[in-house]
Amino acid sequence: MNVLVIYTHPNHQSLSYAFLEQVIRGSGENAQIKDIQVLDLYEEGFDPVLVFNETKRRRDMHSDPRLEKYRQQLLKADKIVFVYPIWWGRPPAMLLGYIDQMFASNFAYRDTGGLLPEGLLKGKSVVCISVMKGPAFYPLYWLHNAHKVLMRKALFQYVGIRKVKFFEFGSMESAKGRHDKKLNRVYQYFKSVAR
Fold first, then answer.
1. CA distance 114 to 127
2. Rounded CA gap, 146 and 117, in Å?
3. CB-count exposure of residue 123 (10 Å: 0-12, 13-18, 19+)
4. Residue-wise pLDDT tens digits, 1-22
5. pLDDT tens-digit profile of 62-106?
6. Separation CA 38–CA 21 (nearest Å)
7. What share of the chain is helix, strand, coil (3-state, %, to 5)?
8. Euclidean distance between CA atoms 145 and 138, whole angstroms
């Protein structure tokens, strides 16, 4: 199994980074995982800004040579792991900018003329690991689970990815956040996960 981890946080001293380290540690001890690549969007200097004009069209985004390296990473991956904080009830703008550009028509999906497109990333699985300051029930009850609906239904199912797992950790700025226990959960998952 090939794993691609997309890390989105500007600070390597953050709790998000601690979760990234557990993903890498667990994956390194898992005989099922052949290769693990980490894409740190901030360190990479990924440009999240969409630009469309007379020479750069949205319909051509799937073949933009500037994004070829990232397309190859996604194609190679059997499991795509996203590690990010929840800010204002959603992933960071940097990650959303990556999604806008990478999950493009004729790469991640193909319009069929019907109600739903053909997902072109079938067979892959996704894990989303997110942390937030507020309590874990906040997005579920106050925001009607908008984060998970956005990621699972509006994005991954649309491009053909059906297997999606969430680790959504709340109260992470609290001393009672049980950080070690949550970090260990992620480590144990990646240590033993099969496809």
1. 29
2. 22
3. exposed
4. 999 999 999 999 999 999 999 9
5. 889 999 999 999 999 999 999 999 888 789 999 999 999 999 999
6. 11
7. 40, 20, 40
8. 9
Structural contact between residues 14 and 85, judged by C-beta atoms closer than 8 angstroms: yes
Token code pair at residue 97: 């900018």
Report which secondary-structure segment, H or E, holds 125: strand 125-131
Three-state DSSP class for residue 82: strand
Would you call 35 helix, strand, or coil by DSSP? strand
Q: Give the model's confidence band at 53: pLDDT under 50 very low, under 70 low, under 90 confident, else very high.
A: confident
Q: Are 69 and 104 in contact (CB under 8 A)?
A: no
Long-range contacts of 58-67 (CB under 8 A, 24+ apart): 59/105, 59/106, 61/101, 61/104, 61/105, 61/107, 62/104, 62/105, 62/106, 62/107, 63/106, 64/101, 67/101, 67/102
Cα separation, 83 vs 76, in Å, equals 19
The alpha-carbon radius of gyration of the chain (Å, integer) is: 17
